[in-house]
Amino acid sequence: MRAALYQAAGDVTVGDVPDAALAEPTDAVVRVLRSCICGSDLWSYRGVINRPAGSRLGHEFIGVVEEIGAAVTTLRAGDLVVAPFQWSDNTCPACRDGVQTRCDNGGTFGAPGTDGGQGEAVRVPQADGTLVVVPGGPDGVDEKLYPALLALSDVAGTGLHGAVLAGVAEGATVAVIGDGAVGLCAVLGARQVLGAERVVLMSRHDDRAALGRAFGATDVVAERGEAGIEAVRELTGGRGVRHVVEAVGTPEAWDMALGMARVGGTIGAVGVPHTTPQLGLFPPFRQHLTISLGVAPVRRYLPDLIDRVLAGSLDPGPVFDLELPLEQVADGYAAMSERRSIKTMLAG
Amino acid sequence: MRAALYQAAGDVTVGDVPDAALAEPTDAVVRVLRSCICGSDLWSYRGVINRPAGSRLGHEFIGVVEEIGAAVTTLRAGDLVVAPFQWSDNTCPACRDGVQTRCDNGGTFGAPGTDGGQGEAVRVPQADGTLVVVPGGPDGVDEKLYPALLALSDVAGTGLHGAVLAGVAEGATVAVIGDGAVGLCAVLGARQVLGAERVVLMSRHDDRAALGRAFGATDVVAERGEAGIEAVRELTGGRGVRHVVEAVGTPEAWDMALGMARVGGTIGAVGVPHTTPQLGLFPPFRQHLTISLGVAPVRRYLPDLIDRVLAGSLDPGPVFDLELPLEQVADGYAAMSERRSIKTMLAG
C-alpha cells in the first residue's frame, strides 16, 4: 500500500510499504478515507526534533473497518470510524480516569513499528477501546461531514480539552492563546460545546482571526507579549480573564497566559511544552492560579462530539483549508510549514 | 501598650508602642486574648528575609472588640472575634471570588505602619470584612477553645485550603508534604472537614507524626526525596496519589509532590515558594497534572470553621505545644526556630 514517509527535514515522500495487517487479536485494520497533517508533524519537518529516515507519518484519520481481530467485539467490517491520535484500551485505570493518552496499553500512530495515519490503511491496536463508530456508516453519512469528523481525531478534541482544563463553563469569559487549528478549536469548544459567553482569541493572521470569529470568538487581539496582556486586561475591566487556554507551548505563550489570568483564574494548557519552559512558581502563587496541563485524551470526547457533528450543531471542518490527494502530501507539509495552510486534509 | 518587636535576626524583644487606635471609620480596635508565632515569622528571625529593626510582629490573633469606627456595622464592643492573618473588605471582586488574600483593600498585620498580632491590641482595618464574630462572646465561650479558635486565624484555614486546592473530597486519598502546623492542619482539614478516607503524612519527626495521626493521618512516611516518592507509590498500588498538598514551598518538596502525584492528579500548594522553585513544565504536562497555588484566603473558611470548633467537631488547638506570656515571646521564637515547638501560643 501507499503511505507518507519522512525522509529528512523538509523532505516527505509517498512510497510503497507493507499492507496494514492484523498482528494481535485486539487489532483492527482500517482503510483510511481521510487523514491530515498535524502541527506536531511539522516539528520533524522543520528539523526541530529528529525522526528516523523512512519512518511513517500521521496520526489523525477516519476510515472504514476492513478487518477485525478475533478478540474485537464492538466493531464490524464496514463500520465508519473515527480514530483518536493515540490508541488506548479504554479500560485501564488511566483510561477510566479519562486520561486515555496515558493508557497502560496505549501508543501513538506513526511511532516506530506502527502504521501512520497518512497512508491507505492503518493497523489499529486496542481497536475496541480506540475506534469510535459513526452511526450511519459510510453509506449513511454525507461525505461533506468527513472534514468535521476528521477534525475530531485530534484538533477539535484537543482544543475542547484545553477549554475543559481551563474550567470553562456556561457564561464564562475565556482567552485563547494560539491561532493554529488547536487554538481555533478551543474557541469552538469553549463557545459551542461549553457555552462560554465571551472568547478572546490572540491572533495576528487575518485568515485565522476570521475563522476564529466564525467559530465564536467575540474579540480578537493582535498584540503579543506585554501589549497583548494589556489589551486583554483592558477588555476585562483591568482584572484579566478567569480562563486561559494555552495552545502553543512556548515560554512566550506561557508568559502571556500568566500575565492575562485573573486572580484565582485557571490556565488550561494543551500546547506541548517542547522547549520545556521553566515556570517560576511565585507569580502563579501570588495570583492564586490553577494550572492544568496534558496531552488531550481526545478519545474521551469522541462519542459526544460525533453526535454533535451528525446533529449539525458542531462543525470544526473549516479548520481544513487545503485538500490534497495522499500522493501530494509533500505539498501539504510545505503549505503548512509556510503557513499557507492552517491544516491540510489528505484524501485517498 | 506592649508589643513584640523585631530587632535583628535572632533578636525579638517586647517593648512599649503607641496604643492601638482607630484611624479610619472602617477600623476596629481589638484587645488581643491570644496570639501566636507563625512559621513565616521565622524567615526574618533566621535572617532569610530582611525586616526593619523595630518593626512589629505577628498576624494571628483572637480577641475582644474594644472600639469600632463610625462606618463599622457588623461588630460591637465586647464581641469575641477571630482575625484572619490578612484584612480584607470582603466585598471587592477578588473577595467575592473567595480570594480575600488578594483583596483590593487588603493588607497583612505586622506590615510597616500596622499593628502586629503579637501585642496587647491591634487596629484592624476593614473590620466588617475582616473580623468574624464568635457566637457566645468572651463570657459564653470556654477558654479551652481559645487555642482552636486561634488556629483558625491561619494554620487551620491554610491547611484546609491546601486540601481544597488539591481537590480533596469525600473518600479521597491524599498525601501531605510538610509536617509543620500547616501540613498537620491539612491532614485535619482533609480528613475531618472534607471527608478524605486516606491521608499519607510525610514526616520524620515522631512528635509531629503522632499529632498527624491524632488529626487523622492513616499513614506516615518518614522517607524523603526519591525514597519518599517510592514509599507513597507503594502505598497507592504503584500509581501515586490523586491529591497532594504541598505545604513547604521548597524545590525539594515540589519534586516530591510532582513525583508522587498520580496521572491526572492535583497538587494544592500553600507553601509560599520563597526560594522560588522553577517548575519545568514537561513533567506535569506528561503526567496530566493540575497545580493550584496561593496564599490561603483563610477569611473564606472562618464562619464554617468557627461553627465546627464551637460544635466540638473540629479541634486544631493541639498544634500549639507551647504557651508563653507575651513578655516571653523571645523564648517562643527560639523554641520554634530550634524545632522544640511546632507552634507557640502567646497569652496576654
TrEMBL record, chains A, B:
InterPro entries found in the cross-reference section: ADH-like_C (IPR013149), ADH-like_N (IPR013154), ADH_Zn_CS (IPR002328), GroES-like_sf (IPR011032), NAD(P)-bd_dom_sf (IPR036291)
SUPFAM superfamilies documented for this protein: GroES-like (SSF50129), NAD(P)-binding Rossmann-fold domains (SSF51735)
One Pfam family recorded for the sequence: ADH_N
Keyword Metal-binding: yes
Alcohol dehydrogenase-like N-terminal domain mapped to chain residues: 25-128
Name of the protein described by the UniProt record: Threonine dehydrogenase-like Zn-dependent dehydrogenase
Any GO MF annotation of the entry: zinc ion binding
Domain of life: Bacteria
Domain Alcohol dehydrogenase-like C-terminal, chain residue ranges per copy: 181-292
Cofactor: Zn(2+)
